[in-house]
């Protein structure tokens, strides 16, 4: 069954959000020094935090983006120096917006369903946008100053930008932006690094080996499988680590079964292995349902009866060595950490028991104060294996979970829940045994009612988990929506949790919303400083930090 015949996801989405509950974020292209509202910024923070996320939903009077993750992406830059912070931001997909308004092009969205006639006519342009226009791609899922990129020249001169900053997507195209102004410089594909890296899907969460400096990622194609690669920027060399085409079940007595195209948002990296999860959230009809509607979510189906397959690729032998079955199945967006200890491979991740959370993302981080009464009600049902429409009062629980895999037999030995309500993770010690993980206290905000005027305010805090003892500590403020924390270690300290968390916050009240930069002590989870960015909302999904004192 094709998406147009299956269910009323687009209709429900539009009716639920007909009043445009997402507030636009203004650009701040000229850098400004932020006011410190209270507290003191530690003087030892000397670097730049980049963040990115959907920021513009109302394109003109007729075009309104109605899915939280599909707003036009902005890049945000925070430069810390001597106890002060300088901020600027930029819309990085201006040509995509113009094409949507002019109905000449429509990208493949996460959940928003574009005008059908416009989409069908212009789908080929979306799949292969004009690469010479750096703002013609949607690449605002993650952002990093440690990314593989083809050497860049302009007007015959080598690029002199001191940092290589890339806004990443889960598709083929990535976006190289200026490290200071945030202006897009070029769009590129990974197959420019190596012709073998053909495909239409990758992970926006590329992994970085802190020891070797290698960046590891993959390219996937529904017809040809997954190609895992590493890139060393110092030598500008790319290495193919392995290709995944079939499930390599240890001691199997039957022929290997081909992998199925599935949703892969992130993966794990350890000292010797790359671990790619094949989740039972599959691309229906080889991806044709998504192509037909222009909405990725309509092309996905959850198979509750299928296990998860963890495909193990050896960084040493450069081949796919095994596929580990995990039952019962689970769904994940992000990884937390992976390391090898004795004969065990340890994998940590925030997991959901199924993929129902995918339907909940349409209201993620909703910027507008929400009324408790709903004007549009629809009975719940299972559609493509997921509960639809999503219940606003029954948000799926996300749990930090650990998996132990025996590297001698490639069998799952054990799995255990370490903490509840944990997502958007950060750690201080990647690829090695660790004790602490920080994150947001749930992927979807809980709503705290204001009985005075019957408004409902979103709220989400930060959490610190001691993975040894299962103890959690929280940072919460009423009506604050804290976004992904970025951990910054204190220079010279050998204590794992000695440092700060940097988070961007939307602070709501009956008078509106204020966007804040908040600095939290990573050890005590107490507030250190609050800076005012502006009287607007800005929802960022992910970010990264680079220490300029060591750059």
Automatic annotation (TrEMBL):
GO terms for molecular function: carotenoid dioxygenase activity; metal ion binding. Its cofactor is Fe(2+). Binds 1 Fe(2+) ion per subunit. Coiled coil: none annotated. GO terms for biological process: carotene catabolic process. Signal peptide: none annotated. Keywords: Iron, Metal-binding, Oxidoreductase. Fe cation binds at residues 205, 265, 334, 542. It comes from the Eukaryota. Pfam families: RPE65. InterPro entries: Carotenoid_Oase. Belongs to the carotenoid oxygenase family. This is Uncharacterized protein. It comes from Lichtheimia ramosa.
